[in-house]
Prior knowledge:
Largest sheet: 8 strands, antiparallel
Number of strands: 26
Structural class: alpha/beta
Distance between the termini: 37 Å
Radius of gyration: 35 Å
Bound molecules: flavin mononucleotide
Number of domains: 4
Strand order of the largest sheet: 4-3-2-1-5-6-7-8
Shape: elongated
Strand content: 15-25%
Amino acid sequence: MTISVWRYSHLALAVSSFLLLTLASVTGIILAFEPVSQKLQPYRADNVGQLTLAQTLPVLKKGYEELTELSVDANQFVQLRGTDANGKNLTAYVDPRTGSILGTPTPQSEFFQWVTALHRSLFLHEAGRFFVGLTAFLLLLITVSGTMLIIQRQRGVKRFFTRIVRDNFAQYYHVVLGRLSLIPIIVIALSGTYLSLARFNLVGEATIVSPTIDLDALQSKPERKPADFAVFQNTRLVDVQSIEFPFSDDVEDYYTLKLKDRELTINQLTGEILSEKPYPTAVLLTSLSLDLHTGRGSLIWALILAVASGNILFFIYSGFAITWKRLANRAKNKYTATESRFIILVGSENGSTFRFAQLVHQHLLKQGKKAYLTDLNNYGVFPEAEHLLVLTATYGLGEAPTNARRFAALVEKYPQPQSVRYSVVGFGSHAYPDFCQFAFDVNQLLAKQAWAAPLVDIHTVNDRSPEEFSLWADAWSQQANLPIPISADLLQAPKRRFDKLTVTGNTRTALPDGTFLIRMRGSRRRNVASGDWLAIYPANDHRERLYSIGVLENELQLSVRLHPGGLGSGFLHELTPGEAIRARIVSNASFHFPKKAPVVIMIANGTGIAPFLGMISQNRQQTPCHLYCGFRQRTSLAMYGDFLEESRAAKKLTNLHIAYSREGDKQYVSDLLIRDADFITNVLMMNGVVMICGSLAMQKDVLDILDSLCQNKLGNAVSYYQAHGQLLMDCY
Ligand SMILES: Cc1cc2nc3c(=O)[nH]c(=O)nc-3n(C[C@H](O)[C@H](O)[C@H](O)COP(=O)(O)O)c2cc1C
């Protein structure tokens, strides 16, 4: 089954039920607090779990003139009905060990009654109950389709709980919270559905029929005291739902004992069991469903239900946010596919690639060109086409996005009747092992078609980088002789809240390779961790530059290489202590120091050491850390030398391995990894984590080496460890 079937089912189910689901969740959250408030009442006696009926009944009989009924509720509060020593009618919670009164039951508060009625039937009686039941069933289907989507997203059941790549807020937390609240939501949905079916008598016999007793056969001898009745001795109070006491001393009146799973009648003189009837399965399931659906009896479960109901509200919001974003990016065409000279085909799962495609589309239309934009799955014969532009994302294990799955088959089926120049742009992320794989596949496929001729080489765009996209746009413009300038809209940094940071130190460039360290302090306390990015705006315009942060002594430290004419590095280089800048801290949670790893290997080259300096400085728990770094020459290490030595002495850093590429043995960091191959694979085998930060070229080398080490020594591809959160990367 394809991802789209699950996605559309998930969406259709959510759309059809969201109003009732919102109502049910809000009322569900409120109702979850009823068992919580009840549990907090002081009506539960200590050690009630250890008492038997044989111990309790004589005590109660002594203290009260007449007992009518004793019941034990889900909170293990023991309630007694009867008359007291003065002959006054009484209904009270009692201490079953002493018979003393602990309190008087009060009816459910009007507020909870009102909310319960709304939750159960929307004040619409049977019709309302039907709709509420249907909503619970739809919730079950939504949960199943959502689970399938997560399995597909995570690329398999086994990776269900592995790290989630963060795309955007709504999407990330939709999946994160979806996984966390999966079980409670399935329980809510299943139990709610069952209770509705039971209510409409659709689950079999759900009533308890009392047995008929042969009164003529009742024996009066041998007479025993209740404390000596075997059945009372063997029945724990907490297993009792209720016990109805005999109406008179006559042998024809008997005890009716309702346990959790069966009902017994007991001769009041001899203690003989007169009848024993297990409850029908439907009754037991109804009681279990009530326990699970309401949280009665368990404070913790009631709180879990409240949180899960809150999550359902968040899913409604985030689900619609995701859909809105997707729809907002869909194409609107002025010309038809058959009359257009420029065909733009898009492969996109979450819509962002459409934004880029639309920009190209608009530029072509503005220049009076007949251009047509559509999904890759809508590929067909384009009789007037001269140019084919394919912009596509990659998903899954280097696979096509949903709206591009049929493209390969369609290309084989519909050759173009005329020659067409094509160009492919891949959108992807280096966070995935198969970077832009689907775009490469499309490029290869087109290259094989007799009618297709490339206009420019394939280009890739990492993390929607406007700069990388504009490189393609320039190349294509030149070859097609048609300018498509990248609009400021696309490059504009979205409006966000900025932080004011004050420079506290700047080493300026002292080294031949131009590296310097700059430190800053925020004006307000911010949640920032080593590995996050600092986004700066050197020219106070849309141009944003990102730097990896190391947090040392509550300050943000950046390690920067000064590039001649570099916008960001030049700006930072000129800053002096006391100066303040406007910047933004961007969370990069997938590159934080792993809290639970037994060992961490850090691999860096050049300024990629920056986040690791912060992580080492904060490694107070002394997790074994092995730092592998590559520099050009010894002097490049100079500014970090003292800090690294001190960290080693303080056991925050276990080992330091350095490769110099322009001195001595002229090694790269990858050579050190080959040297320490056994150690590295051992670390991966014992669930250690490898972190890589630095240049993309170094990342590529290191990944190639790790992949062959992992394949040869561990029998897994390196992507296996990445998927298990054991390989974290932040390269640029
Ligand atoms: C679940 C998931 C899987 C992804 N898999 C890959 C991949 O294998 N290779 C890749 O280069 N990018 C991968 N990406 C990144 C997307 O291709 C990238 O973010 C792209 O810009 C999204 O475009 P869209 O918003 O148009 O769908 C993946 C993203 C997600 C959320």
